[in-house]
Amino acid sequence: MTIQIKAQHLSMRYKERVLFHIPQLSIGPNDAIYLKGDNGVGKTTLLKILSGLIKPTTGEVFAPDDSWLKRFFNRAGRKDVIYLHQSPYLFDGTVYQNVVYGIRYEKESPKDKRAQVITALRMVGLETLADEHISVLSGGEKQRVAMARAWILKPSILLMDEPSASLDQESIERLVVMAKDLLSRGSSIVVTSHQKNALTELCRKQWWIKDTTLIESPLLQVITDAKQENNYASSNAN
């Protein structure tokens, strides 16, 4: 299932400082969005709001499964929306135990669950490390485990917060494989990054938090405008 989430009049304030005020936005279905902005403008905060992990100062996020029961009990998180932190939390256990955690209560047989986990680990190149303790993995390998754990849940929307930070090229390419697979299923992704890479190249739209607001544009138009500016600057220099 793919979903769309919308937000209106979102703002976040810390004491006297306003991070952003966004009149409206929407994600999905099958969006690929590059979220950019300087340090401290609120990119991580926005992703956490959209995933349901924190509440905005003002405004509201609308998602299909935000029932009155969820709001009444103030449960964190949003169904079918996963937030992937750049330093993901992993459990004290094996690689396999970390990845299978999200489907541990599903009705499939243990054999089918293991097959799903091994498929996920194969996509990130870690199937031979399934029974190793998480502590023996490198930083890039841990990020790949976190991506496999997110992928196995088949989220409708995956919010990726600086997923390529400090990763080697192989790890980035492994994340791209999974992101492409999710997009092919109709899911949406949002990627934050301070520099363009193979993940941001998947994106078709750009969000830019600037001057406490959100500027939206098709990424193709952004690339075209940048080329025109560079050509103009070169011609003037000559």
Summarize the structure in words.
It holds the Pfam family ABC_tran. Belongs to the ABC transporter superfamily. GO terms for molecular function: ATP binding; ATP hydrolysis activity. Residues 5-236 form the ABC transporter domain. InterPro entries: AAA+_ATPase, ABC_transporter-like_ATP-bd, ABC_transporter-like_CS, ABC_transpr_CbiO/EcfA_su, Metal_Ion_Import_ABC, P-loop_NTPase. By secondary structure, the protein is an alpha/beta fold. The chain has a domain at 5-90 and 141-218: P-loop containing nucleotide triphosphate hydrolases (Rossmann fold). It is 35% helix and 24% strand. It has 7 helices and 9 strands, in the order E-E-E-H-E-H-E-H-H-H-E-H-E-E-E-H. It has helices at 43-51, 68-73, 95-100, 110-123, 139-151, 169-184, 219-237, and strands spanning 5-14, 17-27, 32-36, 58-62, 81-84, 157-161, 188-192, 205-210, 213-218. The strands form 2 sheets. The protein has a 6-stranded mixed sheet, sandwiched between helices. Helix 6 links the parallel strand 6 and strand 7 (188-192). Helix 4 packs across helix 5 (139-151) and helix 5 runs parallel beside helix 6 (169-184).
Largest sheet: 6 strands, mixed
Percentage of residues in strands: 15-25%
Number of strands: 9
Number of helices: 7
Let me know the CATH homologous superfamily of the domain at 5-90 and 141-218: P-loop containing nucleotide triphosphate hydrolases
Organism: Vibrio hepatarius
Domain ABC transporter: 5-236
Protein name: ABC transporter ATP-binding protein
GO molecular function: ATP binding; ATP hydrolysis activity
